[in-house]
């Protein structure tokens, strides 16, 4: 540095001379103004070297002696981020919100609480929060079953931001109705998944089949749901069929009789069968116009009911319109 910056001119006996003696240098403040007004102490070298005042070493300064301890994450925050350009300033610090803007955009304020960050956060970091499961049980959506095991993110994090207020929290606000139109309004109500489901496991549903138009009887009670309720693979994604199933027997069973017994619009298998087996348990030949008596009751059915064929379909012919003795006994 230029010698004359310190050895300034003085007037000695009418002549300009440089001062060499008596220059005060015990403290930096002999020549430098303490812009901190003494607030940071008078040992400038705690923080400054002589190269550049902007290069600050802060190990010498104990912020805790101010009314605001620097803890947790605040320790690594640059002085200026709180103080701006004026280190003598005393920033407000009653609430975190004095310095932190509301990340949650009023979500917690609007629910009647102060929204004060310290209710849920500490200076050690914003994540994880202090909002515990116990507190969650007091919200409008207590967590139960499989929901307890979910990370907070899966319900509250969009991938870019946290969101805690929900307009509604019916199951369908988070879960897709995978049933399409296959659960009728009678059982679904207003998206009431809980009519059948719980929050443990989707496949541990409860449903009373008696309430449908199709009561399960006989062999049907021993069948798996999926034996009847198959997936319709023609749609994407495939949907398991419930409401769109027909209740009439031939929608699932082969019409082996070539519609012989179909009377105007009706093809009632239950006239002769039950759901227990395909023997004609409810059929009584004596209720036909041709009772089986005498020798006739001892002979096999197929002696009178022969195999027939119509349009390539084989079937046993039960309808016999002409049954005079002579028709069969000539
Ligand atoms: C940063 C300020 C500063 C600068 C720059 C500086 N000096 Fe000094 N100099 C001092 C101080 C303070 C004293 C007084 C020391 C004392 O009183 O013991 C001093 C003392 C002296 C003395 C007198 C020593 C004695 O006999 O007591 C001489 C000679 C001198 N300086 C020469 C120079 C020259 C030449 C330069 C330029 C190369 C220079 N100084 C630059 C601060 C400075
Ligand atoms: C005798 C007077 C004198 C003393 C004592 C003195 N300085 Fe300086 N210092 C100067 C002068 C003169 C300059 C150059 C002019 C200026 O930039 O203010 C300077 C410049 C500096 C600079 C570079 C300027 C800048 O703005 O970055 C730093 C840093 C500095 N001094 C730190 C110190 C520190 C720390 C002490 C105490 C250990 C100290 N000085 C003691 C006179 C002094
Ligand atoms: C506890 C640490 C600390 C102490 C002690 C301290 N300072 Fe500072 N000083 C700072 C900080 C921090 C800044 C701001 C640096 C910045 O703006 O990047 C600063 C800035 C300055 C600046 C202004 C630099 C500029 O160009 O903006 C000067 C001049 C200065 N200090 C002088 C002093 C003097 C003189 C003393 C001794 C009386 C002193 N400081 C003691 C921490 C300290
Ligand atoms: C996280 C914010 C924050 C950071 C970072 C921070 N301060 Fe502070 N500082 C404050 C607050 C708040 C106060 C006021 C305390 C009070 O009211 O007594 C304060 C007070 C002070 C004071 C006392 C001011 C006065 O007028 O009494 C000084 C000096 C100071 N800080 C210096 C620093 C320096 C130097 C740094 C960097 C090492 C720093 N601060 C970093 C928040 C901060
Ligand atoms: C009712 C409790 C509550 C209040 C009040 C609250 N937060 Fe949060 N905040 C949370 C929860 C819970 C998270 C999610 C944290 C996690 O689990 O990672 C969060 C996350 C955050 C995050 C994101 C953290 C990350 O790493 O993704 C920030 C930033 C944040 N909060 C800031 C604030 C601020 C600032 C305030 C005060 C204005 C505040 N919060 C008030 C509960 C709260
Ligand atoms: C005087 C101002 C001030 C006050 C009061 C304050 N902070 Fe900070 N805080 C800051 C600044 C500035 C930062 C650094 C910038 C940032 O990350 O927002 C910070 C950073 C943080 C960080 C680290 C941020 C991160 O992303 O990792 C956390 C956590 C934090 N503050 C929590 C709090 C909590 C909790 C409170 C209340 C108990 C609080 N702060 C009060 C100013 C303040
Ligand atoms: C299965 C989904 C789900 C999971 C997992 C979940 N939450 Fe929630 N959370 C909700 C729903 C739904 C609400 C109710 C929203 C409302 O009342 O508006 C809620 C409310 C909240 C609220 C707001 C409370 C209030 O009073 O406004 C906070 C904070 C919260 N959850 C934090 C968490 C945290 C932290 C976790 C992880 C430990 C978590 N949640 C896990 C669904 C979930
Ligand atoms: C706020 C969002 C939300 C709401 C509301 C919600 N859930 Fe969940 N639920 C989830 C998340 C997230 C998972 C875990 C990811 C997944 O399996 O979809 C989950 C998982 C489940 C699981 C376990 C899935 C598995 O295979 O492990 C069941 C069962 C379940 N929820 C049922 C329900 C029912 C029933 C309702 C309505 C009473 C409901 N959920 C309401 C978010 C929610
Ligand atoms: C009337 C009863 C009933 C209602 C109401 C109902 N479900 Fe189901 N759900 C079932 C049955 C039965 C199954 C098992 C058959 C299957 O896998 O489709 C099932 C299976 C599921 C599965 C598991 C599918 C798989 O293959 O893992 C999910 C997810 C599901 N339901 C979601 C919902 C949702 C969401 C709602 C509300 C919108 C809902 N269900 C309403 C009866 C119902
Ligand atoms: C033997 C075939 C069969 C079996 C086995 C069966 N179902 Fe059904 N299911 C039906 C028929 C047919 C309907 C009537 C559809 C209708 O009323 O439109 C029906 C109706 C339903 C409905 C109501 C759909 C609606 O909204 O109208 C549900 C739910 C259902 N079944 C679930 C089950 C479950 C769960 C099981 C296993 C425990 C099961 N079913 C076993 C044939 C069966
Ligand atoms: C939604 C489909 C469905 C409907 C409708 C249906 N069934 Fe079934 N039924 C089945 C299935 C699946 C089985 C088990 C597989 C099989 O034996 O064909 C079965 C089995 C049976 C059996 C037992 C067969 C055996 O040899 O064990 C009888 C009998 C039977 N059904 C009668 C009926 C009668 C009668 C009706 C009309 C009242 C009817 N079913 C309506 C699906 C249906
Ligand atoms: C009028 C009485 C009657 C009606 C109505 C009737 N069946 Fe039959 N069905 C029989 C008789 C008789 C047999 C032969 C029993 C035997 O060979 O043991 C039979 C046998 C069957 C068999 C077993 C065929 C085989 O090859 O083993 C099936 C399957 C069957 N019927 C289905 C139906 C279906 C489906 C309906 C309704 C669409 C129906 N039946 C209506 C009388 C009837
Ligand atoms: C001796 C000849 C004879 C024998 C043996 C006989 N049937 Fe018939 N069956 C008839 C005649 C004739 C009719 C026509 C009666 C009518 O149209 O009312 C008939 C009608 C039927 C019908 C049709 C009923 C209707 O509603 O249309 C069935 C089913 C039937 N028989 C089943 C059987 C079975 C099962 C056996 C063996 C157990 C059997 N038949 C043995 C002569 C016989
Ligand atoms: C639909 C055909 C059919 C009709 C109609 C019919 N039968 Fe028969 N009948 C038979 C057959 C088949 C046998 C057994 C003969 C055989 O094994 O060759 C039989 C056996 C008999 C036998 C026993 C003969 C023997 O050799 O053991 C007598 C008796 C008899 N029928 C009388 C009658 C009389 C009477 C009528 C009129 C009321 C009549 N049947 C109507 C088909 C018929």
Describe the structure using short key phrases:
two-stranded antiparallel sheet; little secondary structure; two-stranded antiparallel ribbon; binds heme C; 330 residues; 7 helices; 4 domains; rod-shaped
Secondary-structure map:
Elements: E1 9-12, E2 15-18, H1 79-83, H2 133-136, H3 152-156, H4 185-188, H5 225-228, E3 231-232, E4 239-240, H6 301-304, E5 307-310, E6 313-316, H7 325-328
Bound molecules: heme C (14 copies).
One heme C binds next to loops.
Averaging pLDDT over every residue, what do you get? 91
Report Rg.
Answer: 46 Å
Oligomer: single chain
Distance between the termini: 145 Å
The strand order across the widest sheet is 1-2
Number of domains: 4
Secondary structure tally, helices: 7
Helix proportion range: under 10%
Strand content: 5-15%
Tertiary shape: rod-shaped
Question: Which ligands are bound?
Answer: heme C
**Run of helices and strands:** EEHHHHHEEHEEH
Low-pLDDT ranges: none
Total strands: 6
Major sheet: 2 strands, antiparallel
**Structural class determined from secondary elements:** little secondary structure
């Amino acid at each position: 540095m230029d010698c004359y910056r310190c050895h300034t001119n003085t007037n000695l006996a009418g002549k300009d001379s440089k001062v060499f003696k008596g220059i005060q240098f015990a403290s930096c403040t002999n020549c430098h103004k303490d812009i901190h007004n003494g607030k940071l102490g008078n040992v400038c070298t705690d923080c400054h070297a002589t190269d550049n005042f902007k290069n600050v070493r802060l190990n010498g300064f104990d912020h805790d002696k101010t009314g605001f301890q620097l803890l947790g994450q605040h320790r690594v925050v640059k002085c200026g981020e709180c103080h701006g350009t004026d280190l003598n300033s005393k920033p407000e610090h009653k609430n975190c919100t004095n310095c932190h803007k509301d990340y949650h955009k009023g979500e917690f304020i609007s629910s009647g609480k102060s929204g004060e960050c310290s209710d849920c956060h500490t200076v050690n970091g914003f994540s994880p929060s202090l909002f515990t499961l116990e507190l969650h049980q007091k919200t409008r959506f207590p967590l139960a079953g499989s929901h307890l095991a979910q990370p907070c993110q899966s319900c509250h994090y969009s991938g870019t931001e946290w969101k805690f207020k929900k307009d509604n929290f019916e199951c369908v606000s988070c879960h897709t109705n995978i049933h399409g139109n296959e659960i009728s309004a009678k059982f679904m109500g207003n998206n009431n998944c809980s009519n059948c489901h719980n929050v443990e496991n989707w496949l541990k549903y409860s449903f009373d089949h008696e309430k449908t138009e199709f009561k399960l009887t006989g062999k049907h009670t021993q069948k798996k749901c999926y034996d009847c309720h198959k997936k319709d693979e023609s749609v994407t994604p495939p949907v398991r069929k419930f409401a769109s199933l027909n209740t009439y027997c031939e929608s699932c069973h082969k019409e082996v009789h070539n519609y012989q017994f179909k009377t105007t619009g009706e093809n009632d298998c239950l006239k002769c069968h039950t759901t227990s087996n395909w023997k004609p348990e409810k059929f009584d030949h004596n209720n036909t116009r041709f009772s089986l008596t005498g020798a006739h009751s001892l002979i096999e059915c197929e002696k009178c009911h022969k195999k027939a064929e119509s349009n390539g379909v084989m079937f046993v012919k039960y309808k016999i319109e002409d049954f005079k003795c002579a028709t069969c006994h000539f």
